[in-house]
Amino acid sequence: MAEGLRERKKRRTRQHISDVATALFLERGFDAVTIAEIAEAADVSVNTVYNYFPAKEDLFLDRGEDAVDRLSRWVRGRRTGESAARAVLRELHEAVETLSPAVGLFEGCADFTRVVLEVPALRSRLWQIRQDGLGELERTLRAEVAAPDDDPVPALVAGQLDWLYAALTDRISAGMAEGRDPREVSREALALLDEMEDLLGERVLDYAVRLT
Amino acid sequence: MAEGLRERKKRRTRQHISDVATALFLERGFDAVTIAEIAEAADVSVNTVYNYFPAKEDLFLDRGEDAVDRLSRWVRGRRTGESAARAVLRELHEAVETLSPAVGLFEGCADFTRVVLEVPALRSRLWQIRQDGLGELERTLRAEVAAPDDDPVPALVAGQLDWLYAALTDRISAGMAEGRDPREVSREALALLDEMEDLLGERVLDYAVRLT
DNA sequence: ACCAAAACTTGGGGTCATTGCAAATTTGGG
DNA sequence: CCCAAATTTGCAATGACCCCAAGTTTTGGT
């Protein structure tokens, strides 16, 4: 009874609505599709849509949740002797090299990105997700180095790591939106990563080195 | 005829609407005030409000425009032998010390900030303004160092300078929103500034030194 | 001062996102 | 098969925002 039919059905319904909505958005653009149309296409009522998704934006940016704590996870998972920044750089490097969807490097991401970039409401929603991730990362750093509440440094370092991620994905998004080949964009992104590492201050690069 | 009656009247009407709206928002909150109420209070029609302001958010964030190119102006106005980053740090230092409204250090900013922080639409709008400023700054840096279009560094340095400004004002906003004394918040902000300067990489600190 | 064009304002009439509410339906358990 | 809880739905509002056509006001000549 831990996983009733009810739960499964709800998850399926939610996914179905999200899929239908995403397809419509990609096909005709975010603004050109109404909630009523989505509801009809998904064969549910408008109220049911709102039952699962608080706002229209959430229908498109459904997969944004695990991006919220990605940086935190990377930092928590850093290796012994590795700082937070170096762990993030390493993970980013790997993600870019493997054309990971985590950094937006997959065929078909272009259409997705294009829709996001041209709709202010979606850009805002992405920014909100990024903000949440930043807060999360700051808490993580604070906990990892056992910093007192009034120490401003964890917030600053979090800001720098967040900037790494954001600057990289922004560039990748821009590249993909131009319709370029993922591998070419990846190569460019690797160069950007090196450049960014070179720009970072030593104190940032050496912050929160894992001792154990 | 360079400054006809029409122009003056328009400016006055616009300002009047904005003032009325801001007062209502501060008094009762952003969401609790409708455009219709603002129009009535300002003694114009709803359509006239939309004539001057593209969206409700713009009624509250009317003064955000000169913030868009503040960083650019600071960079362009840097002294001989001074880098872009040092100019920004100097200007920020001065703004914080003089309790300049440019960094949100004035009595009464607290109410303003509180409204912004609790309404997603306003946070988004502020972020948009910040994004515009970032683009502007990147263009400025690119022009100042005569960088080729495919040089990624100006964008990265712009991101770092933008981060300086944003991290500082975020902290100040948070402090002011707590109702603390501006001078106390200012003192804390100065410490934060020193910390940030210390975290910046040398390459960022020395970018775009003015030669002439 | 007088007129026609240009610029502003207004009223009225939509579209659509989002919400609240109560009735109708479905599901899990006994 | 029946009840109670969870879901879904229909209905009605609210309010942002857009479009258009009909006033009004301002401007630039005359």
From TrEMBL, chains A, B:
The entry lists its GO molecular-function terms as:
DNA-binding transcription factor activity; transcription cis-regulatory region binding
**Residue range(s) of DNA binding per entry:** 34-53
All copies of domain HTH tetR-type, residue ranges: 11-71
Keyword DNA-binding carried by entry: yes
UniProt entry keywords in alphabetical sequence: DNA-binding, Transcription, Transcription regulation
One Pfam short name: TetR_N
The family database entries (InterPro entries) matched by this protein are listed as:
Homeodomain-like_sf, HTH-type_TetR-like_transc_reg, HTH_TetR
Asked whether the UniProt record includes Transmembrane among its keywords, one would answer no
This protein's name:
TetR family transcriptional regulator
Q: Which species is listed as the source? A: Streptomyces roseolilacinus
Q: What is the lineage of its organism?
A: Bacteria, Bacillati, Actinomycetota, Actinomycetes, Kitasatosporales
